[in-house]
Each structure stands twice: as C-alpha cells, then as structure tokens.
Design a protein that fits this description.
Chain B: GO terms for molecular function: sarcosine oxidase activity. The complex is a heterodimer of chains A (about 90) and B (about 1000). In chain A, strand 1 and strand 2 form a beta hairpin. Chain A is of the alpha+beta class. The chains are: A alpha+beta (about 90), B alpha+beta (about 1000). Chains A and B meet through helix 1 and helix 2 of A and helix 19 of B.
C-alpha cells in the first residue's frame, strides 16, 4: 500500500505512522463543558465502514502530518493533503 | 515400473543430469522436473497421504499438485513439501519422500487405512474431545507423529534472501498464450511491462500441447515471442517468478526463485528474491486447473489428470504409462488419447461419461480402433502400489475390467482466479463453462484467457491481446493493431461429472487431506452445509495445496446433496500466498543484527577501549558499566563508579537523549502549550526541567529545555521517547497550532553530549577550557547554559545534573565527540576521573529520587510523580483538562515514594508489591509496587522508588515488599524519594 505524500510523492506505507481520526479537533480548553468535550475528543471514535479521514505522519520522509481519506472496506485512498491545510479549510 | 521416455519433448537430451530420490540414483535431462524425471524412470509412488498413509503418485504437472510432495536437499538447506511437479531438475539434486516410516514402499502408518471408518470428517472433534488432559500428553504427540508433511531443517539457513521493489504500468501474470499476447500488445505500445511466470520455461500450455501457431510449433512461437519481449527495453521478463498475492494499493507480491534450480546459489546471488511490484494495471492470465473426477479408487498411483499426461508426453517426452486409459466428461480428454497415439503409446480405452459424443470423436475412435465406453463411468481401480486395472460400468450396467497402468482423467477446467479474490472479490458461477469465473474484483485487475473461462487457444490469444491493448490505451499509450496468430479453435464441450455415484471404493475429493465423497455427505448430514463450514469440518481445501483442484468438486457435491444451485452454494476464496513462500524470503536480509540498525554514540569506540560493556536502549548501544579486571561482579563495578562520582568526579556519555532544536518567535509560547510548567518567561541562558503530558492527562515525557536566545530553545527528551516526542511536537505544530511561528528539528545525531559530574567537576572543566570559558558559580550558576566557541568549535555547556552532584553537560558536534571524550578524561586525570555507565546513572537517580522509564510508564499522572504543583494554573497545556478528571486527582492513587530496606542486609527487587504488615497477599490488599531498585553505596543498603497508595502522606511507615515469584517478603520503610542530599546543596556549590 502506498500514500501519495503531498510533499514527497508516492511512498510506501512503511514510511508512515498512523495516528487516527482526523475529523476530531482539539476542543476549546476554556469553553463551556471543556472536560466533556475533551473526553469525547480523546476517547470516543466512530468506526465508519467506508471513507474515513485520518491523520498519518510521514516519519520516514518529510515529517509532514497528512490527512488521508481512506475507504476502510477496500483501503482505497481517495485523497491525501497536508493536515494543516485541512484545518485552514 | 510403468513410465518411460518417448521421443520428442522440450528437454535437452544432450545434457544428462543425475539425482537421487530416497538415496537411489536416477538420471534425467536438462528441462525435466523432478516429477518428469522420476516418471521417466518408471517410478509411480511419490509419497503417502496425510491421514490414511495411502500410496500416492503424481497427479498433475504443475503447482496445483496435491500428492507428489518431497523434501528437497539435505542438512541446513533441507526444505519440506516441495512439489516434485515444479522442482526443476539439476545435476546432483537430492530429494526424499515424506510422511512415511520406515520406507515409502513399506509404511507402518498405512494400517490407519484399516481404521479408516474412525477417521471420517470431523474425527478430531469427535474422537479427541475428552478428557482434556489427554490432549497434551497423548493425542497431540500421537497426531503430530502420524501426520505432518515433512520436516524443515532445524539449522540456520545458510542462504541469502533479497527484497526488491519494481514499478510498472502493466503486470502480466502468466506467460501462456493469453499472457504472451497481452504482454506483446502492451509492450509494443511502450508501456512498462513486467511479465512473470512461475515456470522456468515460458509459454504455458504452448509448451505442453501439440499446437500449431502461425504455421510453426506452439512452443517455437512462444520462444520467438519471449525473445521479442526481451528485446523491448520497456519490458521485463521474469521466469521462475510466482505472483503470490495481490495487495492494497495496486501492489503485488512476487517471489523469484533465483537459485532453486542449482545445488547452491551462485557467488553473491541470493537464493530467492521477494519483489513488491507496484503497477497501474494487472492482467491475470494464469490459465486454469483441470479438475479430477471423484470415483472409487481414484487416488491410486497411476491415476492422473488428462492434461498432465499430455504435458509429460509433449513437454518432457515421458509417457506415464505403457497402457493408458482415458476417463473424461469433455472433448478435451480425447485430446490426450490423440497425443498418446501420436507418441506411440497404447490407448487401452476411452471412457466418456457423456451419453453421446460428437461424430468427429466417434470417427476418430473408429479410425484408431480405440475401445470406447460412452455413457460409462470408472467405479473402481486395482493395483498394489500402482494402477494395474480399472473397472468400468457401461451404460447397460455391465462391468468391464480393463488392464491399464495409467488412467488419464478429465473433469473439466476451473479458471485459476486467485488474485481476483485476494482483495475481497467474489467469484461467480457460470452455467456455460460449469465453473467459477472471476466476479467482483478490483478495477485494476483484468483477466484473460482460460483464467477468464476462455478456454480455446484462439480465445486465449484474442482475449490476451484485447486485455493488453486495453490496459495500455487506458494508460494513454498508443497501441497498434495486433494480428492474432492463426491457430485452432478447439472447444471443450464439458458435461460436468462431480463424482461417480456408483463408486465401489473410497472416492477422494481432496487428495492431500484425504477427504472423500463420503466425508462431504457426512458434513451435510451433520449440518455443516455452507462451503465455509464444509471446509473447516472436513478440512477440504485446507492442505498446502489449498484445494486448487479439489474445492470446486467438494462444493458441487454439497450442492447436489442439498439440492441447491451452484451460484447459491458458492465457493471459498483464497488468500495470499497462492503457493507457499519461504518465510526467509519475507525476512529477506533483515536477520540478526540486520533486523534493525544499531546506533552507536560518537564515544563508542573510545568506550570499548575503556572496557565498557553495552546495553541496548532502543536502537542505541549505551555503555552500562566500565568493569575493571580485578572486580568480582557488576555490583562492585557500579558501586565504584557511583562512589567516584559522589567523592570526586565521573564522566558519562548522554548523547543518546533526544535533542530537539526549537526556533521561531513563538517558540516560548509553543513550549508553554506542550509542557505543564511555564517556559515562556525562562531567561536566556537558563535551562528548566519540564514535564509533558498526553492529551488524556497521563505523563508522557520529561527533560530539560534550555533557552539560548529569545527565539531559540534546545529541548532534551528521554532516550526512549526521542522519536515519539518529535512526532508529538510536529503534530502540535502542524495540526493543532499551525498559526504559531515555530520550527523544530531533531539534532540528536548532530551533537555529542557528555556529563561531567562530581565535586571536582568544575576543576576538571577549568583545566579543560583554560581561559576559553569561565565556569565559575558566578558566571555559570546551577541551571545556567552557555553557547560558545571552543577551539574553533561550536560548543554548549549546560549546568544541569541527573546525578545530584555539581555537574555539567558539554556538547560539541558529533564528529568531535570522541576527541572531547578523550580531552575530558585527560583533563580529569589529576582528580582520578572515571567513566560511568547507565547502571551507575540509574543508581544515582534512584538515590536522588528522579523518575525515569519505570515510573513514566503511561499510567502515572504528574501528581503521581510528585509534580502536581508544577502544573501551571495560568495557561492551558496539552493534557491539562483531562488531568482534572476525578479519577486522575483521586488522593488514593498510588504516588511516588522512596523505599529503603529496614534490614540493610536484605535485597530489594523491582516488581515487588506492597502489602500492609500481616495482610493476606490478595489483589484487594495490594497497595502498589516497587518500580525501581538499586544498591546505594552512598547509603550502604538497597533502596528503591515505588508507587504506593497515598504515598506522600506515609513517609516513615513500614510495609512489606512482597515478591512471591522470587521468594521475597521483606520489610521496607517508606521515605522521601530524595534519599541522598535532599536539600540539593551539592548542586549549587
């Protein structure tokens, strides 16, 4: 399996480290019910059968954090982008 | 003795090769397989069956072979379960039969045949159920002795294995007529093509049949085509290479047998090479497997697949028998009779199960005066260790016994679907060809030829060329018109015969696992009707051949028994590897020390010369102690090193700790957010101890971070967490707070860093630096840091201490590390400086109560580690919110304390659990455990650190350190973790 790193190009999956769900963002630490939101953000995960957006780290390459959209049923990768660009959107 | 050499074949008769089988000498020719050479020598018996130890002969001429499994080679290179049908003959080959004792011809285990009624489907489940204790002592050893398929060598593998990557546009799997035309079409367009075939001779069935293609022999056409493909610079032709699996992301696994056809690999050559091929398109042209007809006695040596008989005749110039009969349910079986006659072999009879055959076949039989039984079936066979006669029931019900030493059987063909199912694709049943066809499959895999149910030669050329052309044009290559070779268009005309109901003997479905038609019926009767249950209950298709020729027959029999159509019954799918792959090939060169890189510090060679022994710390090798020849044991060495540091001065390499360079106008703010304590206001020229949490509130890593400029920090991490900390910081920087102006880079490898510790450390540094730098307490107080140039080198000095003594760490670029180590030792000579290792370091940190790996175990909070008050309340940081959960702040949580033995003569061991005096040793009474223990030469007793419930409140209390595994139960006193110099006065001198 390969990931098309937006900086390095197509690279073997062994160069990458998986982190997890990219749709979860860090809650506002000063917001209302911060504790509850943090518990959800850190511990609760959906487990979709189908496309899933996830964070991978190119540890064996450019050290970029990338957002990979992957079909959990087929492992087909739909898109790869820099994780921080994802945040900007 | 029945097989013999005929004329012809694609073997090189000028090159005779000798080999041995079970110690007996034989000879064959270059181009033979072990099976063809043994058949040519008249051998019929190749092995014994798995369960009943029945005599078994060769059934096929390819990788689907269920019976002829042998052990190849001797000693360290011995490899079991090699299929004789694909083992390329070489001069000096040594093979032996397996699963027999004492010899192949006289096997004691064959008596299990007499017990056969007890060995039916599911017998493991039924017979060996109870009592449970019998499993380990009786059943399992007995089964292991009786069963099993050969023995692997138990010596280290002397050969080398390689791993390689390749990238292409079109991967063509199989070099038969479909594969060759696909490769040619795609190759001529300029696409990068890899053509792989497991065989050593390319051409597939063009080498096995008497085809004429474009007016020349089929094998000559194949050779010419391969030559053209090899001449194309964009095409790679890989013989002896099995595509064993399809993997995610358009990757395929290939195993290239570089040297399996030689006694030993050539100099500098691996035995096998594991390829990962990344391709845009793949064309599966893997052909089909002929399927047997289960009839009574169908496993007797001499009963073979009809297509295999043709392969032996036409490719190897070997007739497997002198008087051959053919049992078929299609026109294809008749081709075997034709080829036998052409080779001058007697055809005893053709038995065709179909009620009628075409006039052309009837004419052929009359012309050649072949005895023929139409609408008839073979119901039994005779012969001791090989076939001597068959019994046929004709359509009127009359029995005929026909003498024959070989029976060629043709039950139709199953497309070889394998990689189409590896990524979750499901086959679909075809009532046209009476077999499963590729069904759903990944979009990048195209199927051509017999693998797609297009059995005739003309269809194979046509579909191969179409698939090759389409793959190339889909990828944007210009394909030119491809003139299809002129050839015959021979139809199979199958009328399926799944088994012979009137059989009078055991009718085998799965030869390798001894599964019979009766067993399938039993599975149905006992409710194991789905094909997946049938497989597991009877073990049908679970042998090393994975049911390549047997599975569909079993499923069809089940379909008939349950009255369901085949499309509903379905079939089992295969997973990679398609054929067994040597485990060593997956390991490749990554064996022993090559499994992972070894990281050596700059001072490694120096330390080695100084008598160091080393310990692995992650990938690093760190000196753990510097033993002197007269020292009796490690304790003496470590105690000497600790005492030297505490009384004078010592020297230690700390380069392996992670070093992360952090720059940018927001560097201070960034550190504020990742550390629990404040760093934004840290003065330039100062260092501070910091603790990082994970977002779930547990401690992650600790270390000191120094500020060299407003916008420049250098962080240190633990050795073990250098990588994860870097990854964590990158995540924070790139994903959480991309708006911060901060850049980070690991400089662990760039700087060599040494601690100089002890009351005389300053004196050593003064001598070392001379006038270059002032290291006085005023110029460089505790926790002060400086960057300066020393002898033209950039250098850094940190006044930080892990040992608890007056100490400095000095850093220079790594390549000067060894020189600095020597310079420090030279400068310290007057104070008898000693090098010390990680053991002494560990003792001193326990004496000082510094937490390390055993305490930072992923289950402790900052408060557990005695750093609750370090957590800033003025800012947010990673882990702050969740470290406030009730369970994290529970005062009952185990927290860090120091421990010391009440009796100084007793020894503490890490891992011991704490119990109250007099308490029963139960989980409920468990108070915590000892995380670290060491003998303190400073305090002359064993001390430790531990996590104990409400620890900080209990200083002075005496509890038991209970260690039943190592027989320990001793009294310890709870105390402050800081057992030596608790006020830290030595640090500030």
């Amino acid at each position: 399996m390969r990931i098309d790193c937006p900086h390095c190009g197509s690279r073997d999956i062994q160069e990458f480290v998986y982190r997890g769900d990219a749709s979860v963002s860090r809650p506002d630490p000063d917001g209302e019910d911060a504790l509850k939101h943090f518990v959800d953000a850190v511990h609760l995960r959906t487990n979709p059968a189908g496309f899933h957006s996830e964070h991978w780290y190119h540890s064996g390459g450019c050290r970029s954090w990338v957002t990979v959209v992957r079909d959990t049923l087929t492992h087909e990768i739909e898109s790869v982008g820099f994780a921080n660009e994802e945040i900007d959107r | 003795m029945s097989g013999f050499r005929t004329g012809g074949g694609l073997i090189n008769r000028a090159h005779r090769m000798s080999f041995t089988f079970d110690g007996r000498e034989y000879s064959g020719f270059a181009g033979d397989t072990l099976a063809s050479a043994l058949l040519a020598s008249g051998e019929t018996l190749f092995g014994r069956s798995f369960k009943y130890h029945r005599p078994r002969g060769v059934v096929t001429a390819g990788p689907e072979e269920p019976n002829a499994l042998v052990e190849m080679r001797k000693g360290a290179r011995r490899e079991p379960n090699t299929k004789a049908t694909v083992a390329e003959l070489y001069d000096g080959l040594e093979a032996s039969s397996q699963n027999r004792w004492p010899s192949l011809k006289h096997d004691v285990g064959a008596v299990t045949s007499l017990l056969a009624p007890f060995f039916v489907a599911g017998f493991y489940y039924k017979t060996f159920m109870w009592p449970a204790s019998f499993w380990e002592k009786l059943y399992e050893p007995a089964i292991r002795r009786a069963a099993g398929l050969g023995h692997a060598s138990d010596e280290p593998d002397p050969d080398r294995y390689e791993k390689a990557y390749a990238f292409c546009d079109v991967l063509v799997i199989g070099s038969g007529p479909a594969g060759l035309s696909a490769a040619l079409c795609a190759g001529r367009s300029g696409a990068r093509v890899i053509l792989a075939d497991e065989d050593f001779a390319l051409g597939g069935r063009l080498n096995a049949e008497r085809y004429e293609v474009d007016g020349i022999a089929g094998h000559k056409w194949a050779a010419g085509t391969v030559e053209e493909l090899r001449s194309l610079p964009n095409v790679i032709v890989m013989p002896r290479t099995t595509v064993f699996g399809a993997y995610d992301g358009r990757e395929f696994g290939l195993i290239e047998r570089v040297a399996d056809h030689m006694p030993v690999p050539l100099m500098h050559q691996p035995r096998q090479r594991l390829w990962r091929v990344v391709t845009k398109k793949a064309i599966l042209a893997s052909g089909s497997y002929e399927r047997p007809i289960p009839f009574g006695g169908n496993d007797r040596p001499g009963v073979m697949m009809a297509s295999a008989v043709r392969t032996y005749l036409n490719r190897y110039g070997v007739s497997p028998g002198r008087r051959v009969s053919v049992f078929t349910s299609s026109d294809d079986g008749w081709q075997t009779a034709r080829d036998l006659l052409a080779a001058g072999v007697e055809v005893a009879a053709v038995i065709d199960a179909r009620p009628k055959v075409s006039p052309a076949l009837a004419d052929f039989a009359s012309r050649e005066a072949i005895r023929r039984y139409i609408g008839s079936e073979v119901v039994a066979t005779k012969g001791r260790q090989s076939l001597s006669a068959i019994t046929v029931i004709d359509k009127t019900g009359i029995n005929h016994e026909i003498a024959a030493d070989c029976l060629a059987v043709s039950g139709g063909f199953n497309p070889n679907l394998y990689v189409t199912t590896h990524l979750g694709g499901r086959p679909k049943w075809s009532d046209v060809i009476h077999a499963f066809l590729p069904g759903t499959r990944p979009s990048h895999i195209e199927v051509a030829g017999a693998a797609n149910g297009e059995f005739s030669l003309a269809d194979a050329f046509r579909s191969g060329a179409a698939a090759g052309g389409k793959a190339a044009s889909d990828l944007g290559f210009n394909t030119s018109a491809f003139e299809l070779p002129k050839t015959s268009d021979d139809a199979v005309n199958l009328s399926p015969l799944w088994h012979v109901e009137r059989s009078r003997q055991k009718a085998f479905v799965d030869f390798q696992h001894d599964v019979t038609v009766f067993d399938v019926g039993l599975a149905k009767q006992e409710g194991f009707r789905s094909v997946e249950l049938l497989k597991r209950y009877t073990t049908l298709g679970m042998a090393t051949d994975q049911g390549k020729i047997s599975a569909v027959n079993g499923h069809a029999i089940m379909a008939a028994l349950t009255g369901k159509p085949m499309e509903e019954v379905g079939t089992t799918v295969s997973r990679p590897p398609h054929t067994p792959v040597t485990l060593a090939a997956f390991a490749g060169p990554y064996r022993g020390k090559h499994f992972q890189p070894t990281r050596r510090a700059a001072s490694h060679k120096w330390a080695e010369n100084a008598g160091a022994s080393f310990v692995e710390a992650g990938l690093w090798l760190r000196a753990d102690m510097f033993a002197r020849p007269q020292e009796k044991n490690w304790l003496e060495t470590v105690s000497r090193e600790v005492t030297a540091v505490r009384e004078s001065v010592g020297f230690c390499d700390v380069s392996t700790l992670g070093k992360i360079d952090i720059k940018g106008s927001d560097a201070g703010e960034f550190l504020n957010r990742v550390y629990i304590n404040g760093f934004g206001k840290l003065a330039v020229g100062k260092a501070r101890y910091g603790m990082m949490l994970r977002e779930d509130g547990f401690a992650f890593d600790d270390g000191t971070t120094a500020r060299f400029a407003e916008d420049h920090f250098v962080m240190s991490t633990t050795t073990a967490n250098a990588g994860p900390a870097m990854q964590h910081l990158e995540y924070c920087r790139q994903v959480l707070w991309p708006e911060l102006d901060v850049q980070i880079v690991s400089v662990t490898e760039q700087w060599a860093q040494y601690a100089v510790a002890g009351p005389n450390a300053r004196a050593v540094l003064e001598r070392l630096f001379g006038n270059a730098w002032d290291v006085s307490n005023e110029a460089l107080p505790f926790m002060g840091v400086r960057a300066f140039r020393w002898k033209e080198l950039p250098a850094r000095v940190f006044r930080i201490s892990f040992s608890g003594e007056l100490a400095y760490e000095i850093a220079v670029p790594t390549r000067y590390g060894e020189a600095l180590a020597e310079a420090i030792m030279e400068a310290g000579r007057d104070w008898k400086i000693v090098p010390y290792g990680t053991e002494a370091l560990g003792v001193m940190r326990i004496e000082k109560g510094h937490v390390a790996g055993p305490e930072l175990n992923g289950q402790t909070t900052a408060a557990d580690l005695g750093m609750g008050r370090m957590m800033s309340t003025k800012k947010d940081f990673i882990g702050r919110v969740l470290s406030g959960r009730p369970g994290m702040t529970d005062p009952d949580r185990p927290a860090v304390v120091g421990l010391k033995c009440v009796d100084p003569a007793q020894r503490l061991r890490a891992g011991a659990h704490f119990l109250m005096k007099g308490a029963e040793p139960t989980i409920e009474n468990d108070e915590g455990y000892l995380t670290s223990a060491a003998y303190s030469p400073t305090l002359s007793r064993w001390i430790g650190l531990g996590l104990i419930r409400r620890g900080p409140e209990r200083h002075g209390e005496i509890v038991r350190a209970y260690d039943p595994v190592r027989g320990g139960d001793i009294e310890v006193e709870i105390c402050s973790p800081h057992q030596v110099d608790p006020e830290g006065t030595r640090l500030h001198v």
